[in-house]
Design goal:
Distance between the termini: 57 Å
Number of helices: 6
Number of strands: 25
Strand order of the largest sheet: 4-14-18-16-15-19
Radius of gyration: 58 Å
Shape: elongated
Structural class: alpha+beta
Length: about 450
């Protein structure tokens, strides 16, 4: 061989014969070999193994293809549909409350506001006739003193009015009697004889008679007017006196309502206002304002609140299980006896809406249950047998329809379904599935779309 100017190798003109002459061995060209022999020769394999290696390579390719097909078929996780019991439960928080309790309110017969001077603490044990609340008497004592002073003043005014009226009536009666006497004298001594008396005397006599009559009428008229004025003044003074008497009566009534006592043995549960505060010393109450209650510890109930979003299906008669906060391991059973018609905020200035529910307990343990204790409740909102309950991730929504992918052989077919109730991880299918169907837990079309 010789090298050309471009660096490529070329065969010598002598050809194969010259090569055999140089080496003394038969020459074998790659072009005269089979492809398998050429490959084994290039790899340096012994000449006796080409057929066995070829069969082994074919079997390896078949196994790899089969494994790839099996992996693709089992790559989508599935779920087998079975008729099972579906239970939907919601949680709620609330407090224990007595079913029977005597409400303690500010005395209804109190004439005005009452200021608390002393009150027993919340949750205190009470015996019958124990003082629960004592109100401040200062305002009523001041009112009583003012009423007595007004009463005395009205009495003095009445005495003054009676005295002035009596004096005025005496003077007016005297004037009236004097006018009567003058009238009688004028009529008795009449100067009407023209032969004896002059014209001037006759006219003067008539004028004196008329004047005496008018004085009598005036005195009697003034006496009547002054009597009416005296009666009016007396009535006004009597009104002031009655006002003073009313003030005294109210003050005395308030002083008699300064203490509230327990009607029977029990514990005091103070009522919380809209801010969550209880009444305390210094607070002012109107008559009838609630203060607290003395509950019957032998009959308890629970008042709980359910989020509006979880309240679907909440109804009377459903079972409930409760635990008391701070006392784990104590389970209390009961049933829902009342559900609010409308949702309302539970806390001020918090827009979250709750439905209130009352739970009647199956039993009451006075040693364990106390009014106001916080409870956690689990409500069995729905309990259905033979429902097709499937995982939520097996449901897909496409083009506004809910569907699942059912496995038929080696492929998945889309099936439109109708759903009913649901929980956090499960959904009840009411139409579209049958027992034994195998559905995909993820969308099998995602790889094809990709």
């Amino acid at each position: 061989m010789r090298r050309h100017g471009d660096g490529a190798l070329a065969s010598s003109p002598a050809g194969p014969a010259a090569s055999r002459r140089r080496t003394g061995k038969p020459s074998t060209f790659a072009g005269n070999k089979t492809p398998l022999q050429a490959s084994h020769s290039a790899a340096g394999t012994p000449p006796g193994q080409p057929a066995r290696r070829q069969r082994s390579g074919l079997w390896s390719c078949a196994i790899v293809l089969l494994a790839a097909g099996c992996h693709q078929a089992s790559d989508v996780p599935t779920f087998r549909v079975e008729a099972v019991r579906f239970a939907r439960r919601v949680t709620a928080d609330g407090n224990l409350k007595s079913t029977k309790a005597t409400t303690l309110a500010a005395p209804h017969d109190a004439p005005g506001q009452l200021k608390i001077a002393w009150i027993v603490p919340d949750g205190a044990l009470l015996k019958k006739d124990d003082v629960v609340v004592r109100f401040d008497p200062t305002d009523y004592e001041t009112q009583l003193q003012a009423g007595r002073e007004d009463h005395d003043t009205a009495g003095n005014k009445l005495f003054k009015t009676d005295s002035e009226s009596s004096t005025t009536r005496t003077n007016l009666r005297r004037d009236a009697r004097q006018a009567t006497d003058e009238l009688l004298a004028a009529r008795q001594f009449k100067f009407d004889d023209a032969e004896v008396f002059s014209r001037f005397q006759r006219v003067e006599s008539q004028i004196d008679e008329t004047l005496a009559g008018r004085r009598k009428e005036h005195a009697e008229g003034v006496l009547g007017v002054r009597a009416k004025l005296s009666a009016a003044d007396r009535d006004l003074v009597n009104i002031e006196q009655r006002k003073a008497d009313l003030k005294i009566r109210n003050a005395e009534q308030g002083l008699h309502a300064l203490e509230m006592r327990a009607p029977y043995d029990g514990i005091l549960v103070l009522q919380h206002d809209w801010r969550g505060d209880v009444v305390r010393v210094g607070d002012t109450l109107w008559p009838g304002s609630p203060i607290g209650e003395i509950p019957d510890l032998n009959s308890m109930k629970a008042e709980v609140f359910v989020l509006e979003a979880d309240a679907a299906g909440l109804a009377v008669g459903e079972k409930a299980t409760l635990t008391i906060e701070g006392k784990p391991g104590t389970l209390i059973t009961g049933k829902i006896s009342q559900v609010d018609k409308l949702a309302r905020p539970r806390f001020p200035r918090v827009p979250v809406q709750y439905f209130g529910a009352t739970i009647t307990l199956d039993r009451t343990n006075p040693a364990l249950m106390k009014p106001g204790a916080r409870v956690h409740a689990v409500l069995d909102v729905e309990n259905r047998e033979g429902a097709f309950s499937i995982p939520r991730q097996a449901i897909f929504e496409k083009q506004g329809k809910k569907l699942v992918y059912c496995k038929h052989g080696d492929k998945f077919d889309a099936v439109v379904i109708e759903v009913g109730s649901s929980s956090a991880g499960r959904v009840v299918v009411t139409k579209g599935l049958a027992k034994g169907d195998e559905i995909a837990l993820r969308d099998p079309t995602e790889e094809k779309d990709a």
